[in-house]
Design goal:
The structure is a homodimer of 223-residue chains. Chain A has 223 residues and is of the alpha/beta class. Chain A has helices at residues 6-15, 27-30, 41-48, 68-72, 88-101, 118-123, 139-148, 185-190, 208-221, and strands spanning 2-4, 20-25, 37-38, 56-60, 78-83, 105-109, 133-136, 152-162, 172-177, 193-196. Chain A has a 6-stranded parallel β-sheet. Chains A and B meet through α1, α5 and α9 of A and α1, α5 and α9 of B.
Chain lengths: 223, 223
């Protein structure tokens, strides 16, 4: 997999979770990435398949997903579940926020979901190299297991209760629905509490990564 | 100015703040935009200068900025100031969150800053058509005027006090620094309180639009 951008390549190296086979860097970036093969910006754009490479790309091993049980076994974890999020930019942005806030990990379904693609790596500023991310077959089943493990399931929904009136102590699983459509019915039913952000404007809905940032930080503050 | 994307075009029409001279729509979008001139996706891409047009673009009047004094004159306003934010995506994303949260407006400097470009309109999902946005010559001077008007100035800074321990009652001005570099010294000195989000991860910093979302909602909850 060819990842690109300064932060993603730097963090892939620093985290050491997946082998970095080869790095290519253009003039402006070569000093930062020792051992990189010199390349033109055009060559890097061709390798990366995008112009958003900031002069560096790297051939790295496939992304290493963790097992969901590893996340559930933690003490009072904060786990963010993305229910069929489609945009790798949103996946990456939420991973970045979750990592910065100290969340334990992210869970995504193994179908009909954005994955940890190079553009998600870029949007995460490399946070996906540290944050554990699990893929599960069925989100509702995973939530059932999380409940059985004693954690509380909070679903983000416009008609939920005000998010800042909720007690977030203990193990927390936050479920964010897809852009535009929200939580699917079976997922929604599995939630213990639905939480809403006040919407006082004319525009219908917040961006899912902005909503996730507010909710993740509210949950961090609660523990 | 050619704006593009379903939400931006829809909200520009609905808000009615700036004349819409002409709309072009491709097959999938023409039913939604009555009066649009039929066009191919290729023609729309050429007009919009991007493939991210979702089958619709419109020729609209220049963006109408408001006067900063109009924002300062409001009762206990919540004003978000972007100190040399460079990325129109971040400007748009913050505008979207601010509008949804019910903030009174946004202030940007008239130089060295992202402006309300078509890509900012797109990233805002059309929120910029409702949210008042002002451009000022000098951010530090504007903050001085805001202080004189009795409002409190909160600057986002990694070394500030924990954001969730602060009293946000009264008029609030939140200042977000540029991506990567943060608040400039003179702007920082002008702030009454510096506020920080806890950073518990390995990645250095939150994305500015995620940080803004958390802080804006904290300030909304405080009033």
């Amino acid at each position: 997999m060819i990842i690109y951008g300064r932060n993603p390549v730097r963090e892939a190296i620093a985290a050491g979770r997946r082998p970095v086979k080869q790095i290519w860097a253009a003039k402006g970036a070569i000093a930062e990435f020792g051992g990189a093969r010199p390349a033109s910006n055009e060559e890097i754009a061709k390798l990366a398949g995008t112009d958003a490479h900031q002069g560096v790309c790297a051939d790295v091993a496939a992304y290493h997903y963790v097992g969901a049980h590893e996340l559930l076994a933690r003490k009072d974890p904060l786990i963010v579940v993305l229910d069929e999020i489609q945009d790798p930019q949103n996946l990456g942005a939420i991973a970045r926020t979750a990592e910065a806030a100290g969340a334990d990990g992210l869970v995504i379904p193994d179908r009909r979901s954005a994955e940890v693609t190079p553009s998600a790596c870029k949007a995460s500023a490399g946070a996906v190299e540290y944050l554990p991310i699990a893929r599960v077959r069925n989100i509702a089943d995973f939530l059932g297991e999380a409940k059985a493990a004693g954690h509380w399931i909070y679903g983000a929904a416009g008609d939920g209760q005000a998010y800042d009136t909720v007690d977030y102590s203990g193990g927390r699983v936050l479920v964010m629905g897809a852009e535009g459509t929200g939580l699917r019915p079976r997922v929604r039913e599995t939630c213990d509490v639905l939480v809403a952000l006040p919407q006082r404007g004319r525009i219908e809905s917040l961006n899912v990564s902005a909503a996730a940032a507010v909710l993740v930080y509210a949950m961090v503050a609660g523990n």
